[in-house]
Amino acid sequence: MRRACTSLTVLTGQTGHAPARRTGACRLALTTVAAVSVALLASGCASVSDRVVLLPQPDGRPSAVEVKAGAQRLLLAQPYAAVELRGQALQPVSIDPLVVRQRYGDLLATQPPRPQRFVVRFESNGNRLTPESGPVLDEVRKALAGLQAPEVVVTGHTDRVGTLDANDRLSVVRAEAVREILVAAGLAREAITVIGRGEREPEVPTEDEVAEPRNRRVEIKLR
Known about the structure:
The chain has two domains: 21-109, no CATH class; 116-222, CATH 3.30.1330.60. It is built from three helices and twelve strands. The chain is globular. 21% of the residues lie in helices and 29% in strands. By secondary structure, the protein is α/β, with parallel strands linked by helices. It has helices at 97-109, 133-145, 164-184; strands spanning 21-23, 26-31, 36-39, 48-54, 65-69, 72-76, 81-86, 89-94, 116-121, 152-156, 192-196, 217-222. The relative contact order is 0.13. The longest helix is centred in the C-terminal third of the chain and has 21 residues, at 164-184. The strands form three sheets. The protein has a five-stranded mixed beta sheet, with helices on one face. A four-stranded mixed beta sheet has the order 9-12-10-11. InterPro entries: Bact_OuterMem_StrucFunc, OMP_bac, OmpA-like, OmpA-like_sf. Residues 200-223 are annotated as: Disordered.
């Protein structure tokens, strides 16, 4: 009897695609991204040629993945929701978390460590950190000390007070301020990527011109 093959694509970014990992003759793909689209291709195996399982985000944030096969589309939006490609048809299936760990534990163990995420916050209309951000930066320095060749992404954000262009510039200024703190702590400047997202990705959605302090932040991701 031919063994049915299974496929799961390991995607670790917020959007986009990543190559599948190979396990013997079968592909396995697991995803924990916030919103991606995965196109399944028949692999010539027996009854089940591909399977996608949505894993929970480590920090509990919601995630979703859209699976496409030809004209079919299915959205997975709950942890451990799954879909299989049988022939040319997508079929939603139920899968137990314990089964995922038992069946794919070896593959999951080969994934690179997840980025460590820290958030520091800012006073209104500038790049002055709040007093509460000091202990967070201490945690970042400790985490960096445990990494041999760290890569850091620093992303600045603003609230919705002011124009879109002004907030874009302010978010970069805030991210650059955090970069300088990390450089002063001994991190190589070239290891830091600075991004400004302005008011486009609020932690707390608000109406325009609302000064929401939780949105005035810089997110630091260490890998």
